[in-house]
Amino acid sequence: xxxxxxxxxxxxxxxxxxxxxxxxxxxxxxxxxxxxxxxxxxxxxxxxxxxxxxxxxxxxxxxxxxxxxxxxxxxxxxxxxxxxxxxxxxxxxxxxxxxxxxxxxxxxxxxxxxxxxxxxxxxxxxxxxxxxxxxxxxxxxxxxxxxxxxxxxxxxxxxxxxxxxxxxxxxxxxxxxxxxxxxxxxxxxxxxxxxxxxxxxxxxxxxxxxxxxxxxxxxxxxxxxxxxxxxxxxxxxxxxxxxxxxxxxxxxxxxxxxxxxxxxxxxxxxxxxxxxxxxxxxxxxxxxxxxxxxxxxxxxxxxxxxxxxxxxxxxxxxxxxxxxxxxxxxxxxxxxxxxxxxxxxxxxxxxxxxxxxxxxxxxxxxxxxxxxxxxxxxxxxxxxxxxxxxxxxxxxxxxxxxxxxxxxxxxxxxxxxxxxxxxxxxxxxxxxxxxxxxxxx
Length: 441
Hints:
- The protein is globular.
- The chain has a single domain (7-294, 381-421), classed as 2,3-Dihydroxybiphenyl 1,2-Dioxygenase, domain 1 (Roll).
- It is built from 18 helices and eleven strands.
- It is of the alpha+beta class.
- The longest helix is centred in the N-terminal third of the chain and has 20 residues, at 27-46.
């Protein structure tokens, strides 16, 4: 009987191989990993109760392997094949993100694991953007971009074979998986040789820096990788001491006792030597390192409150935002009581429930110390933060692109399937934890 490697194991091998590749390509990222490890170690020493005893080993493993990456694709065929590639690794498209409202001419999804066991094994995710050609105002340039992308092939023949093999036999053997990872890395590696001449590159750059990044190269090089920290403010403060220039401010909510959603920062993108097809040389700025701190996943009600507070005018970037968020509960009990966040519930060791116990009594059982409520980690992204990171590393100018509207239908047509609703996934995780307690009574 043929033995197949689990998609989780393939994803784990791929994420670690990609990290090593990126550390070699972008040495500052290796330094960033060292900073994050130092900060996390110090944080756990001063906050020993960060993870529950029974979850400690598992959560530490997640902390060490947790990364997300980001790529930018140019055409629908690339997105559809990328979906099939990620599916081999147990990663599926979750949520739709429109970045065009912020002047970034892409829309996106996040490929990630979706079930509890896979997230615990390795939660690696890739934020995947698709260029929106319709937002290019210059008709002649739009046609030229389409022609350039039409000629491009970003997947090796062997990788395409292995994707089909994995789909056909519903898995890959150990040897096939090893080759799959090696071939997949070729899609994401950096190419210093552009596939356009310098004049075309400049015209793309004038339209928008991101368009130049997507169209000018042979493949969708990984433009950043992201370790997870427990104290992003400390990382932000430490970076200059390691000769790394951070972006001016942290994206996402202000510092809180109970972190929510996602906070992100990065170091400035590198300026790298490139060679054009006419043998002229230049420099390209796109690749950087990012850091993330993940908090509680919010319910639709919690997210609506978050968005409303975020949109309120602020007197200053940080202090004003903190003042706005004073209206957002910063206590786990209140967040649960007001149903603003998702929690995982567990019967505490030695605790027993009467046969008539029901979910309606959940709050009392938590207060009585029979059931423990733990925040469910947010696994997804914030479009405003993503746009902020993109803009800070591509330049602040908006470029000559139109301001678009969300077009999830067009994105899903290119993708070849609907995206998964993130709220439904978090609700399933919460419901499953409750079922494990109450359905046995």
